[in-house]
Amino acid sequence: MYTMTTTTVERLVRSAQELLWERGYVGTSPKVLLERAGVGQGSMYHHFTGKADLAAAAIERSAAELREASDASLSGQGSPVARLRRYLLARREVLRGCRIGRLAYDPEVVADHTLRAPVKDTFDWLLRRLGEVVEEAQQAGELPATLDVRSTAATIVAVVQGGYVMARATGSSKSFSAAIDGLISLLEGSHPGGGTSSGPA
Amino acid sequence: MYTMTTTTVERLVRSAQELLWERGYVGTSPKVLLERAGVGQGSMYHHFTGKADLAAAAIERSAAELREASDASLSGQGSPVARLRRYLLARREVLRGCRIGRLAYDPEVVADHTLRAPVKDTFDWLLRRLGEVVEEAQQAGELPATLDVRSTAATIVAVVQGGYVMARATGSSKSFSAAIDGLISLLEGSHPGGGTSSGPA
DNA sequence: GTCTATAGTGTGATAGAC
DNA sequence: GTCTATCACACTATAGAC
After folding, report:
1. B67 Cβ neighbours under 8 A, 6+ residues apart
2. Is A27 in Cβ contact with B106 (below 8 Å)?
3. Residue B128 CB closer than 7 angstroms to strand C?
4. What is the pLDDT of residues B96-147, one digit of tens each?
5. Residue B75 dihedral angles phi and psi, to the nearest 5°
6. CA distance A15 to A35
7. Architecture of domain B8-189
8. Inter-chain CB proximity A101 and B150 less than 8 Å
9. Strand D reaches within 7 A of the A174 CB
C-alpha cells in the first residue's frame, strides 16, 4: 500500500494508525493490519512485542500529529479569537471522527495504561492550550473576563468532539458544522462590547 | 445475573444493552453476553437470528430509554431555559459515556443500517426536541432571537457528547462538568437582557 | 424452549526455515 | 529481518438431544 522505499516499521505503524482510526483497537486484527501493511506476521513480531505494542506506537504518533495540527491553528498570527475561530473552522475529515477521541470509547485502550496515556495527554494538552488562548482573548478584551477559562476551554473541546459523534451518528457533516457555528455565535454574542459589530474575521 | 422471574429474552436484551454500552458491538462476543445473561447459546439462537439481531433489539431499547429520560428533563414545568439547564445538569454516569453516542464510533454499527437507524433517529429526535425548547426560550425572551435554533441545539448536543468523550479520555468527570458549565455561562451571557442578573435558577 | 456438542473460521502469538 | 507453518483458543453459528 505504501511505496517500496518505505520501511517495514513505517508501513506497520501507518497501517495501525489508519485501522485504529477506522475501527478502534478492539475492532482491529493483526491479520487485516498485516495485509494492509503488506508484510508478514514475523516482521511485526520482530519489531514489536505484539498488537498492543504496535498500537501504542501508532497512537503516540497520531497524538503527536493531532497536537501539531491543532497548534498550527491556535498559534501564529491573528487575534486570540481569530485563532479560536481558525481552530474551530479548520478542515477536518468529519465523518471519520477524531482519531484520538474515538479511542476514549475503546474498552481495551481505556483499560491499558500504555495505550490510554497518549489519549489522556492529548486532551490535557488541548485543554491547557485552548485555555491559554481564551485567557489571551480576555486580556485583549475579546471575551468577557467573567468567563471561566477552564470551563470555556472544555466547552470548545467538547463541541468539536461531540460534533464528530453527531456527524457519524447522523451520517452527515452538517450537524458538526452546525455545532461549531452555534458555539461561535455564543462566543461572539458574549463579547464584552456587546453587539454584533466586532466579529474577529 | 437477573432474578429468576425475568424471562430469557429479557435477560438477553439487558445483557446486550450493558455490553454494548461498555464495549460496543465489535467488542462484544456472544460468549460473554450469554455468560452474563446466564443462558445457553441455543436460547439466543432460538429467539434471535444472531448477534446482530439481538444487538438491534438492545440498541432500540436503549434508544427509547434515552429519549424518555431526555424528554423528562426537557418537558414539564419550568421556563425554557430552566428546562435546558435541567437537561444539561441531569445526573449522568459520565465515565460510562453515552450508550447511544458511543455506537457512532463502532464501525459495524455504522455499516449496518438496521443497527445504525436507532442511533441516527435518537440524534435527530434530540436535535429537534432541543430546537423546540431553544425556540420557546427565544419567544420567552430568555435567549436572543439572533441565535440560530438548529445551530444552538447542535451545540448543546455536542457539548454533552463531547463531554463524555473528554471524561473517558481524561479519566475524570470534571472535564464533563466543566464543558457543561462553560456552555451554561455562554448561554446566560447571551441573554437579550444582557447582564448576570437573570439566571434561570 | 433450553441445553450441550460440534463445526469452520479467525485471533493473537510462537517456531523455525531462509 | 523476513517469511510461512503451526499452535491454542475464541468467535459466530448450526445440529440435535432433552
Report:
1. B122, B125, B126
2. yes
3. no
4. 999 999 999 999 999 999 999 999 999 999 999 999 999 999 999 999 999 9
5. -105, 180
6. 9
7. Orthogonal Bundle (1.10)
8. no
9. no
